[in-house]
Each structure stands twice: as C-alpha cells, then as structure tokens.
Amino acid sequence: QSVLTQPPSASGTPGQRVTISCSGSSSNIGNNFVHWYQQLPGTAPKLLICRNDQRPSGVPDRLSGSKSGTSASLAISGLRSEDEADYYCASWDNSLRGVVFGGGTKLTVL
Amino acid sequence: EVQLVESGGGLVTPGGSLRLSCAASGLILRNAWMSWVRQAPGKGLEWVGRIKTKTDGGAIDSAVPVKDRFTISRDDSENMLFLQMNSLKTEDTAVYYCAASYGGISAEIDYWGQGALVTVSS
C-alpha cells in the first residue's frame, strides 16, 4: 500500500486531455513539493514535473502539474501514442523522513 | 551527457550481502544529493535512501524496510556512490536505481541510472 494514492490506470485517445491524480496527507503533499516521473516500458524513470508545476528543460508544455492542499494532478493534453507509460507522483514525507511514491498509473493511449 | 552507471548486481542467497556501485559522469557528484530507488518486478518505485552532500552535512536518510541493513556511502573524489546491502531478504529482489538530485530539500530526482538487478533467492 503506497503512501500516495494514484489510480492504477488511465486512458485516452490521441489528441485528448487526460489527468492523473495523486492524493496524500499533510505529512507529505500538504507541506512539501510534488514531483512527477514518467517510466516508459523497460526504461528508467524520467523527471517530468518538479516542485508541483515546473517543467524541466525539454519537457513539452502540453504536460502540466498542479497541487491543491494534500492532492496533486498531472495533466497531459494533445495525447500521443508515445505518452503510453507508467506515471508516478512523489513527495518528501516529514513523518517518515523519506521520499514517498504513489503506486503508479499506467496510461494507455487507445 | 549525464550518465549514472550501476554495477554489482546479481544473484545472492537470503542472508547474504552485496555491494552496488554507481559511477557518475557528466555531472559534479559532490554537488548532488544522491539516492537509491528500487523497483521490484512488476511493481512500483520504492525509495531506499539518500545521502546529502558533504557541504550539507553528509547526512543519510534510509527507508524503514532497509534501515540497519543497507548503508549508503559516497566517494566524491572518484565520482562514485555505493549501496552496501547486508542480511538480504527475498523481498529485496528488485532493480536498484542510482539517482542524483540538485534541488536540495525539494527532493526531486533529476537524473537516474539504468538500474542494476538484484535477485535474492535460494
């Protein structure tokens, strides 16, 4: 059971907008930054969104992040087949004194 | 180009030990908070622990499941990170990723290695 809660799956058709949610608590998301990672099949994770809503260099602006209270969301607009991957949210947890990840959301492009 | 290359993975029997190494290139390791993250087969990501820069005190934080069994260390002069794993259990079977963070307490992981597979089995 992961400390951060994500839906196990999400899907959309090319061109659509999808959102992936991440729910936590005051120990983590509520008082710390949220980051999002993309993991393509058979590869290492890659940082997509950092500090709630910042895109690292090279990440397209059709990806965006937001945070409100103890929840966060990742939005992907203009969905493409190459977006098919697993997505993880993460945050520092003040009680556990460690990084906590969501269980991951498998995004399928139909 | 930034590269983090893990080595030292393999098959070990329960109760055994293994030491993972991570060689960094294309970045200044001494400025990065370094972490290990693992992923059991078919499962999600799990943070193992991290070591801060010497400038920030070099403190080590470890996840509860591995505390007292796993030790993280660094050799900035060689641009290397290590994970000493003792008293290994079958549930430690996973791909272990070396990871670098330059954001300090914001805790995002900027760079990831390709991973090293550790299999604990009799």
Tell me what the structure shows.
The complex is a heterodimer of chains A (110) and B (122). The model of chain A has no long low-confidence stretch (mean pLDDT 97). By secondary structure, chain A is mainly beta. In chain A, the strands form two sheets. In chain A, strands 1, 3, 4, 7, 8 and 9 form a six-stranded mixed sheet that branches. Chain A has a three-stranded antiparallel sheet with strand order 2-6-5, with no helix packed on it. Chain A has no helices and nine strands. Chain A is globular and about 40 Å long. The model of chain B has no long low-confidence stretch (mean pLDDT 96). Chain B is mainly β and 122 residues long. Chain B contains no helices and eleven strands. Chain B starts with a strand and ends with a strand. At the A-B interface, strand 3, strand 7 and strand 8 of A face strand 5 of B.
Could you give a quick summary of the protein structure above?
Chain A contains no helices and nine strands. Chain A is mainly β and about 110 residues long.
Category by helix and strand content of chain A: mainly beta
Instruction: Enumerate the spans of chain B where pLDDT stays under 50 for 5 or more consecutive residues.
Output: none
Largest sheet of chain B: 7 strands, mixed
Name the quaternary structure: heterodimer
Shape of chain A: globular
Gap from first CA to last CA of chain A: 28 Å
C-alpha-based Rg of chain A, rounded: 13 Å
Gyration radius over CA of chain B: 14 Å
Helix content of chain B: under 10%
Mean pLDDT of chain A: 97
What would you call the structural class of chain B? mainly beta
How many helices of chain A does DSSP assign? Answer: 0
Our count of helices of chain B gives 0
**SSE topology string of chain A:** EEEEEEEEE
Which stretches of chain A are low in confidence, meaning pLDDT under 50 for 5 or more residues running? none
Kindly state the percentage of residues in helix of chain A: under 10%
